[in-house]
């Protein structure tokens, strides 16, 4: 990327020339822009002095220093601040997506000249030929048609054309000039007073002098203004020839801004210089920095439109040329077909039509980019790119490896970068990456046709450059601090919906399963599987790709170097000579380092279930590994070792054997070069543990063993005072260890048989390694069991040898070290089984803590410790116990955790009995007897814990009691004392259940501790620490107790209206707070049946009805008050006891009369259980609340009272009470008594009439006297009660059979003899009214006796 011209890559913006600002004396001209600088950089690209394209040189472009010197006049200081403000607006960079109206500012001299637009072509004349006519066409100095042009005759676009429009020709020209100001008049001196005549003469003289001075000042101002206007007019003419907008800024003092003649002078200057009327003349005085920034912003806003018009006119001019070229089918200029350079040589061919298309499209794209029209620029860049592809497709147009071919290739790469950048500006990441991949693919195909394929370093150099271009572009975009910073897409994998694996037995999937399968296929086609090459990654990925391509480039170059050694002169091309100057390894390190840093920067946040190390990923470790490999190739072995140490830690911990093996081999090579023999030994031992890949040969496998032996024999360690410890705790062990304890647990002082099997690897030979000692540790501080090598013994391929270690115990360990002799030589796949038994005097966990292998050779003493419980990664064999060696036979061990055994105390022997009589009754303390007998030979201290589980029953309320502890959950630490052998102890646990019946679960934990004094033995794991595990045994018993009701209660509730006389509102007693009207509310009759429902009988001591205060109900009487003499009494299962109580209910005392009223009392039953031995259990109390009541609610009601029986010819009374219980409406009542000749009564009283109006809450009573004239059940005369406020017309038959129309609503007449309501207020089948009786064919009757 560094070889690309910066002019072809920078973001183009409108150019503004600024002239006329004062420069400090120490300011120096800017240096020309370095073309080899990396264009993707945060450092702005400054424009410096350029040589003119024409023979006439142009003045230098200078830049002022922003730091003003001290003691400056205000206008010089203003110039410095203006320079700072303009320079801070915009910098020339590659990544500039901001579209604000900001110019690219270039500071120039006031006398700067623009390069010529056209040059006449050179002419040749001879003596015999007349002079040619003047040329009809003139061309630009940079046109391929100008012989003096660097593009003559077939060039495309040169970077100097971009430099011309960014540093030599502006779109607007801002000229700063100082407006002339006359010096202020001198102050008048004080004169001594004189005569009045002399004072008038002196005043007149002063006035004439002032007028003369003012005239001279005005004349001088007019002269200076004319000179300034002439200077502006000259610059205006030069700018007008190029279409450049000229703006003049006049700097004046604040005093001049208040001068009335300022407007006249400005008008004169504008007219004389020919300036435009719009945005062409400004006046600026020394102001603050904030006001100065606002001025800079406003002048750029005002000049933005003329700048856009300037570049638009250029685009139109180029478009006209392109159209003429397209219509004529070729170049629109008359040029010779083939020209021969002076002095002979190869004839040159002019630029082809395809080349002119590239020029025109590229120019229009640049002008559109100047205007900020990214979409238009992108379209023209794409057209130019397609034309370039067409040109590269023909070697006749662009012959390979020529100058124009190389220039076009650079142009194509730069245009491709422009296209990708414009796509990224619009956040079209997929299109940008697609174009980048397409560009690489197309030109890779072209390169193969040019003979620059994958086998050449040029191909991989160009390939790496393309990836680095994209990486630097993305890095610049993401590093930008503007609001339009590039946001890279995130690629989150989609989780497919689960597809049911079950299918019908017939083999046909159900439709729902097929639909889900189709949906999954649709998700896969829509992007469930993401191709990484089609997803834009962060820049670190492309730096990595560039590094890999650079490695390929180096490989190809080294291959050419090898051929050059054997065949001198094979590669003498300039490309090869330049390639020899390239430091490939430095470039690779730079690219890998950038990639590593960016991968670390773009690491996503860890998700649930992932730590930060996992999220950083394997790719970062792989990049670090490639960096280490590059350091190794560059012979920087110390740097490589540092990286290897850091990477190997992760690879060892995560068991990446395939990645660790090549790393260790390269690390070992670095150690060899550094001469570090101890590191070499460590790495060789670890390599033996890792083994080798299956692709390696047998000779390569034995090379590691041979190298280790050679190092041990030919060298000496740096220190010989102690062993060299090779820690393989995180690496693969040399052997495949297997530890098996036969029993999962044993008692104290009981031997535990074990076997330790060490199996040699099958893919590497270790038979020559000098193992001398094998130490087996059962604890860190316990002396090891040492096995010394016995010469003459060796385990062959696949053979099994057994080494007996004997019985190991704590007492023997205190006397000395156990030493055994055995075979310590293994061939491929050989096994050595170390078997023995170990015991412990204290409870602990017995296991083989560590195994240490010792090798001795010469001065080397190497110890290799490893954990035998960790197996090799590839080992998946089930543990087996060796039962026989000849032939080898094994017994499978069916435990997964067989590498250790638990040592525990001898269990205590107890006999526990739980005695109780099921089921338990609710509301009683249910006794459970816990009887414990010590059947052991030791004194045991017994403690009991009881846990009552929460019942899964609603309204359950339980608790337990034992000794003096009571709890609804856990009772802990109930002591039974020390029980000697053969003695038993019992205690009673009481369970109290209340609420609902159901099962109750109790856990009883019985803990026993030995009271014998401990001998304080030492633990085999930590011998200095006494054993802390107590001699305790715990036995758990679970008891499920079913709780049932001892007494079951059934209620039968009826309600009826009260017949008392209403007091009325006139009675003042009705206003008392505790007054209850006897005519209001209802009376409930509750019949309670109590039954002994349990399987055991009970003795009932008392049954009481306990009243409770309630504002809407009150207990009136109860029949149990007369039955108290019957208690105590025994109730056997099925026995019943009945009680009847009366309750008065006033529904008006509650907020909602429609709701039920809680019962105003409860039954309290005191009872005891009858035990099977005739005894009585503890006293229990059960309470049953009275049921809820609901009184009848009436509006208008008529109550009929008649005697049940009568005597013949004896008068009886008949009363009718009409009540109006409506809260707000009065009633107009009409009563009719319909007599029939067949009636059995003679009636004395009202036949038909209207009663007084009933107000709300009032009642009226009507009476009749009836004389029975028949015996038997005689029907009561029929009554009609009508409420005439209703507008409903009804037809009622009379006694004579005629119909009489009466208006009104029939009022319900209730026979109070048969009235009754259930608990919900519903009728229980009683006859309520005469109308209901007639409908049912029944009429109220009275029994008449003779």
From TrEMBL:
Location of region: Disordered: 22-74, 116-147, 184-227, 1008-1028
Basic and acidic residues bias (residue ranges): 197-227
Keyword Transmembrane: no
This protein's record includes keyword Isomerase: no
InterPro entries to which the protein is assigned, alphabetical: Gryzun, TPC11
Keyword annotations of the record: Signal
Domain Gryzun putative trafficking through Golgi: 733-1005
Alphabetical list of Pfam families matching this protein: Foie-gras_1, Gryzun
Biased composition range(s): Pro residues: 26-36
Matching PANTHER family: FOIE GRAS, TRAFFICKING PROTEIN PARTICLE COMPLEX SUBUNIT 11
Name the UniProt record assigns to this protein: Trafficking protein particle complex subunit 11 domain-containing protein
Gene source species: Jaapia argillacea MUCL 33604
């Amino acid at each position: 990327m560094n070889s690309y011209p910066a002019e072809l890559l920078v973001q183009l913006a409108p150019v503004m020339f600024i002239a006329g600002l004062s420069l400090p004396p120490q300011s120096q001209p800017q240096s020309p822009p370095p073309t080899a600088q990396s264009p993707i950089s945060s450092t702005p690209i400054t424009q410096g002095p350029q040589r003119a394209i024409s023979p006439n040189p142009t003045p230098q472009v200078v830049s002022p220093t922003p730091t003003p010197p001290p003691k400056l006049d205000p206008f010089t200081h203003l110039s410095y601040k203006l320079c700072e403000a303009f320079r801070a607006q915009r910098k020339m960079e590659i990544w500039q997506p901001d579209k604000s109206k900001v110019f690219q500012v270039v500071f120039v001299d006031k006398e700067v000249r623009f390069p010529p637009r056209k040059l006449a072509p050179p002419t040749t004349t001879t003596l015999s030929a007349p002079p040619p006519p003047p040329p009809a066409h003139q061309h630009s100095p940079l046109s391929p048609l100008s012989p003096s042009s660097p593009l003559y005759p077939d060039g495309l676009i040169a970077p100097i054309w971009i430099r011309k429009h960014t540093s030599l020709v502006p779109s607007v020209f801002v000229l700063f000039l100082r407006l002339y100001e006359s010096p202020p008049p001198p102050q008048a001196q004080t004169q001594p007073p004189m005569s009045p005549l002399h004072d008038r003469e002196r005043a007149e003289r002063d006035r004439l002098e002032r007028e003369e001075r003012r005239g001279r000042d005005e004349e001088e101002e007019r002269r200076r203004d004319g000179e300034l206007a002439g200077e502006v007019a000259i610059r205006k003419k030069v700018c007008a020839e190029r279409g450049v907008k000229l703006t003049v800024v006049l700097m004046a003092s604040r005093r001049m801004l208040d001068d009335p003649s300022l407007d006249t002078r400005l008008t004169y200057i504008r007219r004389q210089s020919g300036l435009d009327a719009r945005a062409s003349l400004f006046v600026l005085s020394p102001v603050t920095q904030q006001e100065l920034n606002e001025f800079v912003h406003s002048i750029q806003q005002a000049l933005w439109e003329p700048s856009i018009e300037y570049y638009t006119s250029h685009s139109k001019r180029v478009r006209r040329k392109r159209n003429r070229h397209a219509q004529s089918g070729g170049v629109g200029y008359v040029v010779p077909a083939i020209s021969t350079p002076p002095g002979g040589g190869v004839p040159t061919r002019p630029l082809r039509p395809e080349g002119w298309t590239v020029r025109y499209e590229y120019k229009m794209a640049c002008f559109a980019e100047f205007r900020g029209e990214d979409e238009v620029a992108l379209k023209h860049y794409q057209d130019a790119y397609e034309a370039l592809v067409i040109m590269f497709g023909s070697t006749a147009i662009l012959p390979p490896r020529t100058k124009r071919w190389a220039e076009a290739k650079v142009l194509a790469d730069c245009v491709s970068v422009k296209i990708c950048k414009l796509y990224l500006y619009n956040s079209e990441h997929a299109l940008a990456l697609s174009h980048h991949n397409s560009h690489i693919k197309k030109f890779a195909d072209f390169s193969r046709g040019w003979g620059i394929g994958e086998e050449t370093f040029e191909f991989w150099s160009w390939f790496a450059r393309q990836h680095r271009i994209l990486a630097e572009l993305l890095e610049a975009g993401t590093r930008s601090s503007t609001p339009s910073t590039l946001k890279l897409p995130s690629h989150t994998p989609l989780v497919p919906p689960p597809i049911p694996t079950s299918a019908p037995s017939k083999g046909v999937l159900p439709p729902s399963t097929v639909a889900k399968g189709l949906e999954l296929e649709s998700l896969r086609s829509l992007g469930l599987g993401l191709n990484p090459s089609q997803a834009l990654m962060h820049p670190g990925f492309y730096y990595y790709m560039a590094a890999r391509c650079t490695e390929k480039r180096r490989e190809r170059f080294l291959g050419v170097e090898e051929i050059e050694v054997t065949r001198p002169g094979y590669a003498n091309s300039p490309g090869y000579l330049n390639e020899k100057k390239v430091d490939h390894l430095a470039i690779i390190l730079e690219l890998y380092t950038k990639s590593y840093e960016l991968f670390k920067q773009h690491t996503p946040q860890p998700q649930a279930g992932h730590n930060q190390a996992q999220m950083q990923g394997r790719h970062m470790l792989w990049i670090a590994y490639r960096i280490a490999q590059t350091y190794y190739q560059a012979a920087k072995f110390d740097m490589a070792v540092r990286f290897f140490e850091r990477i190997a830690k992760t690879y060892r911990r995560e068991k990446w054997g395939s990645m660790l093996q090549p790393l260790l081999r390269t690390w070992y090579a670095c150690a060899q070069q550094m001469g570090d023999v101890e590191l070499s030994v460590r790495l060789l031992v670890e390599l033996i543990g890792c083994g080798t890949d299956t692709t390696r040969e047998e000779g390569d496998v034995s090379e590691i063993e041979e190298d280790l032996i050679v190092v041990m024999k030919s060298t000496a360690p740096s220190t010989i005072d102690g062993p060299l410890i090779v820690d393989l705790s995180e690496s693969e062990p040399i052997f495949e260890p297997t530890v098996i304890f036969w029993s999962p647990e044993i008692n104290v002082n009981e031997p535990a048989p074990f076997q330790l099997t060490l199996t040699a690897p099958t893919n590497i030979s270790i038979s020559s390694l000098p193992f001398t000692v094998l130490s087996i540790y059962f604890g860190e501080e316990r002396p090891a069991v040492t096995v010394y090598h016995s010469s003459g013994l060796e385990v062959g391929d696949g053979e099994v040898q057994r080494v007996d270690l004997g019985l190991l115990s704590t007492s023997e360990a205190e006397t000395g070290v156990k030493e055994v002799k055995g075979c310590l030589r293994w061939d491929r796949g050989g096994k050595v089984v170390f078997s023995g038994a170990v015991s412990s005097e204290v409870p602990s966990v017995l296991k083989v803590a560590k195994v240490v292998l010792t090798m001795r050779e010469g001065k080397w003493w190497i110890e290799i410790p490893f954990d035998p419980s960790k197996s090799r990664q590839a080992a998946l064999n089930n543990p087996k116990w060796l039962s026989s060696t000849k032939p080898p036979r094994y017994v499978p061990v069916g435990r997964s955790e067989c590498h250790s055994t638990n040592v525990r105390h001898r269990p205590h022997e107890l006999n526990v009995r739980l005695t109780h009589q099921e089921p338990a009754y609710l509301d009683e303390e249910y006794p459970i007897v816990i009887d414990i007998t010590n059947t052991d030979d030791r004194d045991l201290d017994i403690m009991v814990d009881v846990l009552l589980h929460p019942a899964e029953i609603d309204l359950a309320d339980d608790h337990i009691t034992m000794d003096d502890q009571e709890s609804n959950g856990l009772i802990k630490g109930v002591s039974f004392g020390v029980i000697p052998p053969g003695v038993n102890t019992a205690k009673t646990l009481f369970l109290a259940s209340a609420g609902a019946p159901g099962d109750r679960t109790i856990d009883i934990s019985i803990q026993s501790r030995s009271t014998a004094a401990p001998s304080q033995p030492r633990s085999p794991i930590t011998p200095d620490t006494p054993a802390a595990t107590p001699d305790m045994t715990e036995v758990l018993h679970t008891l499920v107790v079913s709780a049932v009701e001892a007494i079951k209660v059934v209620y039968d509730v009826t309600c009826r209206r009260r017949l008392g006389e209403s007091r009325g509102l006139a009675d003042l007693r009705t206003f008392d707070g505790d007054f209850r009207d006897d005519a209001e509310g209802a009376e409930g009759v509750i019949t309670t049946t109590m039954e002994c429902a349990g399987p055991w009988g009970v003795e009932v001591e008392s049954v009481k009805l306990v009243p409770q205060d309630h504002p809407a109900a009150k207990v009136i009487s109860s029949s149990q008050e007369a039955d108290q003499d019957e208690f105590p009494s025994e109730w056997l299962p099925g026995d019943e006891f009945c009680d009847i109580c009366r309750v008065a209910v006033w529904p008006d005392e509650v907020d909602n009369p429609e709701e039920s009223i809680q019962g105003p009392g409860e039954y309290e039953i005191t009872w005891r259980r009858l035990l099977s031995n005739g005894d009585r259990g503890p006293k229990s109390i059960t309470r049953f609340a009275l049921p809820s009541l609901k009184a009848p609610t009436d509006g208008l009601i008529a109550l009929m009272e008649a005697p049940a029986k009568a005597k013949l010819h004896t008068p009886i009374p008949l009363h009718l009470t009409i009540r109006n219980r409506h809260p707000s409406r009065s009633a107009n009542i009409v009563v009719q008594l319909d007599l029939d000749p067949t009636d059995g009564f003679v009636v004395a009283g009202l036949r038909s009439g209207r009663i007084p109006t009933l107000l709300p809450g009032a009642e009226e009573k009507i009476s009749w006297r009836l004389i029975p004239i028949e015996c038997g059940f005689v029907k009561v005369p029929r009554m009609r009660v009508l409420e005439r406020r209703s507008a409903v017309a009804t037809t009622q038959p009379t006694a004579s059979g005629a119909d009489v129309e009466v208006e009104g609503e029939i009022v319900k007449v209730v026979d109070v003899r048969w009235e009754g309501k259930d608990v919900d207020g519903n009728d229980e089948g009683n006859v309520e009214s005469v109308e209901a009786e007639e409908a049912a064919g029944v009429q109220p009757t009275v029994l008449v006796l003779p």
